[in-house]
Amino acid sequence: MNYRHAYHAGNFADVVKHIILTRIVLYLQRKDQAFRVIDTHAGIGRYDLQGVEAGKTNEWQSGVGRLLDAKVDAKVADLIQPYLDIVRAENPDGEMRQYPGSPLIVRHLLRRQDRLSALELHPEDAELLSEIFEGDIQVRVTKLDGWLALGAHLPPKEKRGLILVDPPFEVAGEFDRIVEGLVRAHKRFSGGTFALWYPVKDRHEVRRFIAALHDTGIPKILRTELMIRGASAEPRLDGTGMIIVNPPFTLHDELRTVLPALSKILSAEQKAGFTLDWIRAEQDRT
Ligand code: SAM
């Protein structure tokens, strides 16, 4: 387990992933009934942007850094405001020192009745995450293989919620593991919303992944990809992808509003762009 998210926290992929995360959780808040978020690969929760790791890449500066400085129209501003409010709340003196990871972002959005289960396998990372939420009865941090949560931990007792799957993609076979995990999880919790992150590095692998998702027969699978450049000759993170199964009915339109602006702000070159489409819509069940 060599992957360290501290090098990448707040980069373009985090920005897109975390905006989608806030939109889904805000939708869950529309009903009083409690929900649970399960974050299977949670990370350390809070990242030091002035630390050695972030300083080596400065990726956050072309991610959240650009977004904070960007001028966007009112519709886009409304949709990204909850995310930016959380980022700003973590940096109360106005200087960007910390970036909130997914469990901390979710924590900002929990009401009293809602819960977060955060899994992290790396022992030191799990320890750091536990420290953040020590004594917090709404959050349970477990040092455990996140893939296991897609079995025994489902369905959550609230019977409503979001499963975020954000693996590091440092070992081969991660795309297959996501598809296999989704099939297993969907059998146990077919009404849940699943948000599955993936890197757009190897286009051939991504095409295989999308075909495999289609072949699961699971309905209501939305795909979004945001590219910051055209395809690189050498494998490189050219884009960020997210699959959302059972998305809130509002999400497609929200992303159609937000993605053109994000693509402009976060792009590294002219060939940037985005994709937003249904891998399977509600009606085309197999
Ligand atoms: N979701 C986090 C966020 O958005 O702030 C970032 C997570 S980072 C991309 C992936 C994390 O998964 C790393 O912290 C890594 O230690 C952890 N990890 C790797 N393999 C895991 C596993 N099998 N189960 C749980 N966590 C794992």
TrEMBL record:
GO CC field: cytosol
UniProt keyword annotation of Hydrolase present: no
Any Pfam family matching the protein: RsmJ
Top-level class of the enzyme under EC nomenclature: transferase
EC number: 2.1.1.266
Sorted UniProt keywords: Methyltransferase, RNA-binding, rRNA processing, S-adenosyl-L-methionine, Transferase
Binding of S-adenosyl-L-methionine, residues: H18, H41, S102, E120, D145, G146, D166
Site (Interaction with substrate rRNA): Y3
Catalytic site positions: D166
Single GO MF descriptor: RNA binding
Family annotation (HAMAP family): 23SrRNA_methyltr_J (MF_00934)
Subunit record text: Monomer.
Protein's job: Specifically methylates the adenine in position 2030 of 23S rRNA.
Family classification: Belongs to the RlmJ family.
Protein name: Ribosomal RNA large subunit methyltransferase J
The organism's taxonomic lineage, starting at the top: Bacteria, Pseudomonadati, Pseudomonadota, Alphaproteobacteria, Hyphomicrobiales
